[in-house]
Design goal:
The structure holds two protein chains of two kinds.
Chain A (H helix, E strand, L loop, with lengths): L1 H5 L3 H4 L4 E5 L3 E5 L3 E6 L2 E6 L2 E15 L3 E14 L1
Antiparallel strand pairs in A: 1-2, 2-6, 3-4, 4-5, 5-6
Chain B lengths: L1 H10 L1 E7 L3 H10 L4 E7 L2 E7 H14 L2 E8 L1 H10 L1 H18 L4 E5 L6 H10 L13 H11 L3 E9 L2 E8 L11 E5 L3 E10 L1 E2 L6 E2 L4 E4 L23 E15 L3 E19 L2 E6 L9 E12 L2 E21 L2 H19 L6 E11 L2 E13 L1 E5 L3
Parallel strand pairs in B: 5-7
Antiparallel strand pairs in B: 1-3, 1-4, 2-3, 6-7, 8-12, 8-20, 9-11, 9-13, 10-12, 13-19, 14-15, 14-17, 16-17, 18-19
Helix pairs in contact in B: 2-3, 4-5
Classes of the chains: A mainly beta, B alpha+beta.
């Protein structure tokens, strides 16, 4: 509501992750809270108030920084658990 | 992405593997301390990742905390190469020396090539060039080529112009020689006939005419004598001074006939391709050839052969192996009757062709005619051409 009113990006006001997908090849996530588990077929990431689960094949963490994360591979699904 | 990779390569990085349960915990710990890494991959429980040298140092104490096993797999980048080269300084020195020697070697002249020579010998020019201070091993730097080139005609008067040009390690010297004047030959001589003919016109420039229009001459006959002609009637024959010998000059035009004969062929022979062919493939290596498959010899009774070469390369570099394909195309000889008019026309054409080879150019042809005649049961065509040409030829009086 506040975000709408002031035309501010929601992810900043609500401290939510921002996820960008390039086809099924690349996933870029900003504002994450760390890696819960990682292997070739599944990556679980902790975000504010929840968990993001990415499934696919040959998943690879291309870059891991404090707030950003880039995953490459053949992505199959993206789910959100609160 | 490419630039980032280069940057990482320049700074150097290590590829490590992590084993154990706490891999994720370690990664999170590392991220929280701001240690960046990349290319994380996990296969069969073993995680493989790349990180910078400084991040690696900071990661070590965390590894124990997370109860993982850390192993270095590869050290990549410029700093590691430098380190290795420091240990193998001989190799590094060799590489530097190689580049240095190559650079120095290409800064010299290794060969002098002379082009455009006509009368002069290559050795003379090379000697001259050496006198100017250019020999094998002379540095290219600081050579004033245009000044040096201008020096050449000054040192040898036979040179009209000289140019020098560097082509890598090769010095090309271009020489243009003076044209030596063609000297007039003044030795006394007669003009004699080059062939049989009927004299049409005699124009004497120097000497005394030995023939006149209407005379028939044969090859080798005297036409203009190389003796100074005196005006008649001034002196008595007895008082005449001994004849003075000169070089005869003049023009002696004559009618000359040339002939050629050709049989009239009433059966024509022509060769036609039957459409059948077979090819042999050869592998050529250093001058030798090896048959891969196909017939080595001509498998047909009559055939036309065509050979093609294939070589592969780039610019002037070629593979030493070539392939040659030799193809035989079968031909069949066909005989057919030719109508008399056609055969006559063909024979005339052929006879005229023969004339073109023996007689001088068509310009001088005055008249061309054909005759048919029989000889030894065959019919023949005789082509005769009448030309008008200068038949004078210089012959020295005292060879």
């Amino acid at each position: 509501m506040i975000a709408d009113f002031f035309e501010l990006p929601q992810e900043i006001i609500l401290d939510l992750p921002r996820i960008t997908l390039v086809g099924n090849m690349q996933l870029y996530i900003e504002n994450h809270r760390g890696v819960i588990s990682y292997d070739e077929n599944e990556v679980r990431l902790s975000v504010n108030k929840g968990e993001v689960i990415i499934r696919g094949e040959g998943l690879q963490i291309e870059n891991l920084l404090e707030e950003e994360l880039l995953i490459k591979g053949m992505l199959e699904s993206l789910s959100y658990e609160i | 992405m490419f630039i980032i990779r280069w940057w990482r390569y320049l700074r150097g990085f290590v590829v490590v593997t992590l084993e154990g349960r706490g891999v994720e915990r370690l990664l999170n710990l590392a991220v929280m301390r701001g240690l960046g890494f990349w290319d994380l991959r996990r296969e069969k429980g073993i995680a493989r990742l790349s990180l910078s040298v400084s991040a690696f140092r900071a990661l070590r104490p965390l590894v124990r905390q997370a109860r993982c096993r850390l192993r270095i797999r590869k050290k990549v980048g410029l700093p590691f190469i430098k380190l290795r080269l420091r240990r193998r300084w001989g190799l590094a020195a060799g590489a530097v020396l190689f580049v240095a020697v190559l650079y120095l070697a290409t800064a010299m002249i290794w060969q002098v090539r002379v082009v455009g020579l006509n009368q002069l010998k290559e050795g003379e020019i090379l000697e001259l060039v050496e006198q100017l201070g250019i020999r094998r091993g002379t540095w290219k730097r600081g050579l004033d080529l245009s000044a040096l080139a201008e020096e050449l005609p000054r040192r040898n008067s036979a040179i009209a112009w000289a140019g020098m040009r560097l082509r890598g390690i090769l010095l090309e010297v271009e020489i243009v020689e003076h044209l030596t004047g063609t000297e007039m030959d003044d030795r006394p001589a007669d003009l004699v006939a080059t062939r049989d003919g009927l004299i049409e016109r005699v124009v004497v420039i120097e000497g005394r005419a030995a023939v006149q229009a209407g005379d028939t001459v044969s090859r080798g006959d005297l036409l203009i004598e190389g003796i100074k002609s005196l005006e008649e009637g001034i002196l008595e024959p007895d008082d005449q001074p001994p004849p003075e010998e000169v070089r005869a000059r003049g023009k002696v035009e004559a009618r000359v006939w040339y002939e050629a004969k050709e049989p009239i062929r009433l059966t024509g022979i022509s060769a036609a391709l039957t459409g059948r062919s077979s090819s042999a493939y050869f592998l050529c290596l250093r001058g030798g050839e090896r048959l891969l498959w196909g017939p080595r010899e001509n498998p047909y009774e009559g055939a036309r052969q065509k050979s093609r070469h294939f070589r592969w390369g780039w610019r002037n570099l070629y593979l030493p192996v070539e392939v040659r394909i030799n193809t035989f195309y079968e031909m069949r000889v066909e005989r057919q009757a030719v109508p008399y008019d056609e055969a006559l026309r063909l024979a005339r054409e052929k006879a005229e062709e023969k004339l073109l080879k023996t007689a001088p150019g068509k310009k001088s042809w005055e008249q061309l005619y054909f005759e048919e005649y029989k000889e030894k049961k065959a019919r023949w065509v005789r082509a005769v051409v009448e030309t008008r040409e200068d038949i004078g030829m210089v012959k020295l009086r005292r060879p």
